[in-house]
Amino acid sequence: MPESQIVELGARSKIPLYSLERALQDPLRAVKLRRQIVSQHQATSDINFSVDSSALPYEGYDYKSVLGACCENVIGYMPIPLGVAGPIKVNGKSVFLPMATTEGALVASTNRGCIAINAGGGVTALLLGDGMTRAPVVRFPSLEEAGAAKIWIDSDAGFEEIEDAFNATSRFARLQKIQTTVVGSDLYIRFKASTGDAMGMNMISKGVEQALEAIRKCGFGSMEVISLSGNFCADKKPAAVNWIEGRGKTVSAQATIPRRVVQETLKTDVDSLVELNISKNLIGSAVAGSLGGFNAHAANIVTAIYLATGQDPAQNVQSSNAITVMKNVNGDLQISVHMPSIEVGTVGGGTVLGPQKAMLGMMGIQGSDPEHPGRNAQELAQLVASGVLAGELSLCSALAAGSLVKSHLAHNRKKES
């Protein structure tokens, strides 16, 4: 079929947009024709807009990596400026932090935080927990049956039976913990498991399906699966369960900034920073009723690094849970962040894309660690927390010094030529 006919039929919705790759067996050609179809469709032609002649690029991209993995109905790719902060010394190792963002001053500010942290010897980052979660909701005919299932699942014998079924689904997924909650005749079951170097949502979902079959076969045949995800997980939404129990990687990071560096590099003083952190990040967040948001702007750094390294940017919601603590210790500033739910991976998802894979390579953690599966993803989480630490330090210093507006005007407002 001639390309012109494909475009005409597509613009009249006679050919589904999603079918082009399969029909043409050429991802780039499919993207090219889809751009023409969208441009000629009434939805865009009525407003005199053409994707095909717009500034949205499409050439020179590996669409084979995208197909079936990262995006559908592709019409191009969205370039985002990418900068680096650092290097920052984390656990004795110096690493550049890639940050994709359109917010002026963000990379510069984080970089200033890295400089100040390095002057104090660097960051100590600790991994305190590692387990992805999935929580299906199942239904029983009665409260009594739901309660009986809960009691069995919570027992050692029940856990062992479920663990065997769950672990059999993967070389890497290992069940760690199950939490159960009964609401009426519904039972919410929160599975927590290690997932190697993958972020792990697909892996754990596969394990959960088999675990539910095991539960059904162990005397609970009346159980009905309402949803594989019952929001007790909890994914991509604020939730106290992630703040308290953790999800993904739980990391704490700390650094000591000498008083001289606070004064000369950050242009403020230790006591002012400590007071500002209490008033803003702790009391102010409590006044706002914040859930996991006891920080200045953790989400900025998390999202920028996520975009640069192929993570799921929507998981910024729970990954940015953080509390920032500052103390005056013998005249120097001790700053720390605790982040209980950083969700990252170095394999799968967007990490298969060339540019994102390259940035993981720059950090020395691309792919899976062959000798210690899971170590690369754990290190990425520690680097994210360290970046947040640098960002918190610099922004709070700007606020304490009263220079925030000036710096943003300098970096966010391009001077007219």
Report on the structure:
The chain has 417 residues and is an alpha+beta fold. The chain has helices spanning 3-11, 20-24, 27-40, 42-45, 63-66, 106-119, 143-154, 156-167, 201-217, 240-245, 259-264, 270-287, 298-309, 316-319, 354-362, 375-401, 404-412; strands at 82-90, 93-100, 124-134, 137-139, 174-183, 186-194, 224-227, 248-257, 293-294, 322-329, 332-342. The protein folds into three domains: 3-65, no CATH class; 82-130 and 238-412, 3-hydroxy-3-methylglutaryl-coenzyme A Reductase, Chain A, domain 2 (Alpha-Beta Complex); 136-227, Hydroxymethylglutaryl-CoA reductase, class I/II, NAD/NADP-binding domain (Alpha-Beta Plaits). It has 17 helices and eleven strands. Strands 3, 4, 5, 6, 7, 8, 9, 10 and 11 form a nine-stranded mixed beta sheet that branches. The protein has a two-stranded antiparallel ribbon with strand order 1-2. The longest helix has 27 residues, at 375-401. The model has no long low-confidence stretch (mean pLDDT 96).
